[in-house]
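anyone seen this seq b4? input:
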Amino acid sequence: MILHGRFLSPFVRRVAIWMSLQGRAFEHRPLMVTGPDFETLKTINPMGRVPALTLDDGTTLVETFAIVDWLEETAAPEQRLLPPSGEARRGALQAVACANTLAEKAVALVYETVRRPEAYHWADWIARVQSQVATSLDLLEAHAPETGFGGGDQPTGATAAVVAGFDFVGHALPHLVAEGYPRLKALSERANALPAFSANKP
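predicted toks r here
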């Protein structure tokens, strides 16, 4: 299988972590969504977005939630990273959803404050998106496990999503996490000590 996209993307990295935790081998092609890579990327995913996962049969899956769904569906029961049903599954999916909001809004904030020329910055919009990032961080911090990974001694799908999102903020917007979030920082440290996380750090 071939995973397209840079690990700087919290969405690409989430898929890479998920695959690694499941023990799946894959080739990584770090295509960017900007610059000359964009036209190449559109031949793989016409929408020009990452991640894109090309399967061994040539099929290409796009969008993180759809790729992860396929990974869970085709994994052996002992390799799956989400609970099968009930309250445990709902809790895990809510953590993934919150981490997804964190990642989406953090990426939006980078585009708004770093890529957009300063003359065109929209202060009210920046404040709104930054508040959504802060709220997501607060919610994830409140539910982050003090020890382990929330599902025991092994990382889960929620761990992959949360750590990928949190690490992206720490890398791209470090001032937002410079103070506070001790549980998330500790969770990130525990996770990144494992090869499935350390091999694809942004």
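The chain has a mean pLDDT of 95. Helices lie at 10-21, 37-44, 64-74, 86-115, 123-143, 157-172, 182-192, 195-198. kinda curious what u guys think
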